[in-house]
Amino acid sequence: MTDRMQDARMAGSGTRASLGLILALGLLSACGNITNRLASGELEQMSAVEIYQKGEGSLEGGQSEDAAFYFGEIERLYPYSEWAKRGLIMQAFAHHKDRAYDESRASAQRYLDFYPTSEDAAYAQYLLALSYYDQIDDIGRDQGLTFQALQALRAVIEQYPDSSYAAEAKLKFDLAFDHLAAKEMEIGRYYLKRNHYAAAARRFRVVVEDFQTTTHTAEALHRLVESYLSLGLLEEAQTAGAILGYNYRGTDWYQDSYALLTGRGLRPEAAGDNWLAAIYRQLVRGEWI
Question: Which pTM was predicted?
């Protein structure tokens, strides 16, 4: 008990309203920015509907942390009610709105565990995916969260294909996938600028082989032309240029690669028997995406 609460009792403030205010102030001291949270004792006198409405009111007032608390209290006080079910998904939403991503993910996962066939299960899975996706930062950081976001978004797409969240999950999946390709490109450029051509080529190869549908493929092929020419691997450079020309002839990347190759007396054409030549053969048969 805080000194302030002791002083209040000594002063003889016995009204319920005063006590409620004091308890709220004590919670404020303990919980930082929480301002309108009722004490558990008061909540126990309220119905599940009333507590739910307190949570909604906190959300509308921009107090997401308070809202998550209220929705969680429904589960504690009325664990087998329909309102507890509603409160749990709303708690996941409130935590996410408050950027408490770990807590949001935990609530969403609990909802999926308890109510896997519920009409809100798709939304719970989507919130779980967002708890990873919304933490994806600049491409310079570790991309573990991006992989986790991709897995969770794929679950939305595959398990709930007819839900209203599938299309949005697909869009975010593509963006996260592109994000991973951007990371490989960043590392590849780093090596290329420092004349570590073999290491650079390995990164650009990953983009061409594993991230073909992203926006980085054309540049990756051009960087392969640069890297392989620098390594003296002329057939690989020519074949990379040929694939680039087949798919992205109108781009500046192709024009730059064409100039590099012809400047060495070479042409962008499939040559030799290497990994790029195999891709080119698949490409001209219409099998390469």
Answer: 0.72
